[in-house]
Known about the structure:
24 strands; Immunoglobulin-like; single chain; DsbDN; signal; alpha+beta; Thiol:disulfide interchange protein; nine-stranded mixed beta sheet
Amino acid sequence: MNLQSEAFVTRGWRAVLALLALALVTMSPAHAQSTHIQPKLVAESAAPAPGSGTTVALTMAPEKTWHGYWANGGDAGFGLSVEWNAPDGVTIAPFRYPVPDALILFGMMNHVYEHPYALLAEVQVDKSVAPGTDLTLSGVANWLACTDKVCVPEKAVISVTLKAGDGKIAPAERTRFDGWRALLPQPLDRHGTWERKGDMVRFAIPLPASTLIDAPHLFVETQNVVDYAAPQSFSRNGDYIIVETRVKGEKEGPVSALLKLGSGRGLSLTLNPGTVPAAGEAVAGKAGGIDMELFWTALGGAILGGLILNLMPCVFPILSLKALSLARSGGDARSAKVEALAYTAGAIVTALLLGGALLALRAVGQQVGWAFQLQHPLSVLALLILALAITLNLLGAYELPSFGGGQALADKGGAAGGFWTGALAAFVATPCSGPLLGAALGATLVLPAWAALPIFGGLGLGLALPFLAIGFVPALRNRLPKPGPWMDRFRKWMALPMGLTTLALAWLLWRQLGSGEQLLSPIFAAAMALVLLTHYGAIQRGDRRSWPLVVSGFLFIASLASTVTEVAETERTADATGSTFSLDALAKARATGKPVFVYFTADWCLSCKANEAGAINREAVQAAFDKAGVVTLVGDWTNGDPVITRTLAEHGRNSVPLYLWYAPGAAKPEILPQILTPGLLTDKAKP
């Protein structure tokens, strides 16, 4: 069979399959039936407010080996449609689809979901609707469910109970819907161009060179533009991604499409007819399925960035513990090597665990970034109690083997003490984002999990390198002071930075929870921890009364349980210089034609606070901004925010700080350095 005949047969089979599927849908009964993809309609708020609305999600759960389809199903599939029965005063927008996958079956391209997915739609309630009105939504949904061997058109009645009310959203529902929103493609704020050239169709997508992409695919929603099954060639020409593939059809005018960037991320965009630049450097030059140049660059940046973290103030209190331990060893080679290796292992293992947790949360749709654990008050409370315990230990209130003295403990407990000190150093280092580290960790957004984990491990290795060198280089170890009476004074002095860390964590907890009732249980838990540890020390010094220890221990556990049950998601607004960041606020600010300065910060980010105090909030800088009419937007990431997380990811970051400068009329922002100076910002504000 020649190529022409084969193409004719393939097109014929596609047409037959599509016609059969449509015919079966038309003839299928209207009543509910057993389906291979289970639908369920849920609402973010069961009481949408008149004059506002809510978001509804149609969750689709395919059975094993079955899949559903994107809005444009490709060569042989089709998306979901709903015939709504909506109450008066209620309007329902079209469903928005998450980023799909490309699946080739029998030479035909399918745009599919082979896992549970959710379609989202906005529901608007007219302001004339009276509170308490029944707004129950119902409809008949039709979709196509397929395996690699058979396709079945399916139909079901879907409904969700709503009643006009105050629009309140339960924290659990907000979290669930944020997870689904994270999987939707983000709209690209600029249009691209497309053109036909012979039997090829070419697209130019405006995408800053700083945006990381991996395994891209262009899903063209508009019909009669491309041959879906044809290979796609991706290259970069400056700030444009050039896509070339085989043409199919005679469609003219604007084209709607979705560019999949990798790892479930995507951008929705419109492409208008126009000139497309020449192809540039190939994008998909990968070995073993990943961009090896990106991997090695990111790994080196993580190691060097971790090394630089040792100079950051957030890590210094923990380094003081290690300095005390090394001084105690008195230059003994064996002890120093054991502790250095244990410290390194603790730092690397903790960095890997944090990185693994971050990747796992992303895999289930959560919008999180580096230092995600400090965005939750319970994690901050746990770290506060730990810092308090270390402070009391350094002051001599009680003794623990990990921090105690004596030759026996140095021999037997040195490895354990070193490991946990390294683990703690890695844990508290995560809020810091020094030079090189932001870009290195940003690479984990597009690398597969097995390639991203070594980068997190590289951060831990870089953090441990100074102590690893001291443990294995005699010349460095010999410069350590010898053990003596000064060590007890040094130990007490080291309680000062650790105590300051405790106070900083208490301030952060207050910032996250406010001054209301939610703060009472954490305060009581910290107070009981103080009593518990202090009396434990008294027992070590000969006090035989055990009841204060039992009572304070019981109250400590009870207060922790109360904290877990009471602490919920807390809304907070930035009180920094500037307006609160949102995508709408950014669009409005750019529309004014004035310069726009956007900075993303968090209360637990010491680098952020240093830049704010030393540069952003300086009187000279604010005067220059006022004179130039600069619009400042502040993205506060203290408690986490999926919109900010996605914005960071779009600029190749998964941590703060991030500073963006939008010059008037510029197509893309300039990413400013992570260390700001007043001169840099005032120069930007000059016309």
